[in-house]
Amino acid sequence: MNIPEIVKVKELMLPIEEYSTVYEDDTVDHAIDVLHESFRYDKNFLMGHRSLIVLNREKHPVGILTLRNILSAMNFDEVMLDLQYSTASWASFYNWHTQNWTKLKVRDIMRNAGVIHVHPDTSALEAIKIVAQKGVNVLPVVENHEVVGVVRTIELFDFIAHRI
Prior knowledge:
This protein is α+β, with helices and mostly antiparallel strands and 164 residues long. The protein is built from 6 helices and 8 strands; from the N terminus they run ββαββββααααββα.
């Protein structure tokens, strides 16, 4: 009987040095800059991280900040409603943005603690199960309470695709 090899998360993960992180007490304005710095064009397609790992000052993971969290915090529904009645709304939105993003903290809009994470020795199949059950797109890889990497759905999908 041929037993398939067990692939561990540490073989698939992106080292934390190659992924963007912020601290929970950083401003959202700073987090937007950090996230945007990960973007690059590859053959006319915009590539980059879709989330940031949020750390406390001890470098322990305390949350994940996603593009969706940022966009939701912008409250576009209100802006769009105002646009129906006034062309000055974009100026108002810009003024609100510049005043509030410099005050609002990452902890105020991130997906909070109880961060779902895996250990480097977790099997890839277990990581896939966690991603599917919890509905997350990125899993911090934690060893000794410190983030050492991330495994994203794209790495897990690539793992599956090469075994089918």
